[in-house]
Amino acid sequence: MKKNQASGRTMHPSSPSTLGILFSLSLAHLFNDMFQSVVSASYPVIKDNLALTFSQIGMIAFIYQLFASVFQPVLGIVFDKHPKPWYLSMGTTSTMIGLIIMAYAGSVYMVAIAVSFIGLGSSIIHPEASRLTHYASDGKHGLGQSIFQVGGNFGSAIGPLLAALIIAPYGQKYMLIFAGIAIISLATKRPITRWYKDRMNRISIPGVKKDVIHRVRLTKHQIYYSLIILLVLIFSKYVYTASLSNFYTFYLIEKFNVTTQQSQFFLFAFLFASAVGTLLGGPIGDRFGRKYVIWFSILGTAPFSLLMPHANLFWTCILSILIGLILSSAFSAILVYAQELLPTKVGLISGLFFGLAFGIAGVAAAILGNIADKEGIEYVYKFCAYMPLLGFVAIFLPNVKPQRKR
User: Against a cut of 0.70, is the pTM above it?
Assistant: First the structure.
């Protein structure tokens, strides 16, 4: 809890102002990830327009993920040391430029430039918005990150649906519509900018109490050991996620002969289920412990991922929904667990874990694209089905109980 400097009143984590900022940050995440998923869902259209191979699509995805990952830890350090209220708007502007270039891209090289700008925008928004969410949640970090993450998941779910309704029937140039939406997104960030300016002014006043820091009772060795385990879990989750987010539409088209538009509706179902799972994961972790959420969400996906390559169209859809629901609950718990290990480096941790998530997904997309060209798209899903089994390493995570210190 905090006290309002002017009135002396206590501000609870559930106060309207705090929840308003959390939902504003969630909305910022929604817009950002909607733009990202529109690009991914438009790969079949771009592939047909420019006569690209799966390897080229995989390389485009790799370039995007590279720009959306490598810069994140570096920018997270910058945001920790030199906080500014306009970083989020800068990220959205970069994304808008990329969407405009994408609308007129006539070659694989122009597409690569476009996704570079879009990836850079994501690389700015993810660590900064996650860092601000940590401060706005006032101790209920699992709940705060879930509210933040669910915005991203809903954005990721809406993106393919909009791509199916706008890009697939009307063409690549209609990316300009999403560039226009990016301008609207800039306007929605004004409450966050005002709140963060006020916060920076407040904590700079002598005598005002600084934020509460949550420290865990672990040695440095235990902290680093735990971070390595979390990185293994991120690897497992995002290699499998890359197979779904980048190639699920191609898999459905090739195996079940559905149309591009139909495949994007199936992708929407998977991503919508992921959004629901994300909303549940954080509060459950706050209540029962993040270790158990992490363990269940990754290892618990394995039975469904192993069944999916052998299912018909109906059961493929059902299994993908179950996979999205269970697997998506992991990231909020993993991120908050890591932030609690290093509570004074929230920006760095946010950038590192978002960056690794994107980086692993990007490398996986490139590798899986090559495998799809050589072995077929169905082979990709038979291979990736085993990745959630790595979730068993979560059993070695210590149960952390943060101790509040000022």
Answer: no
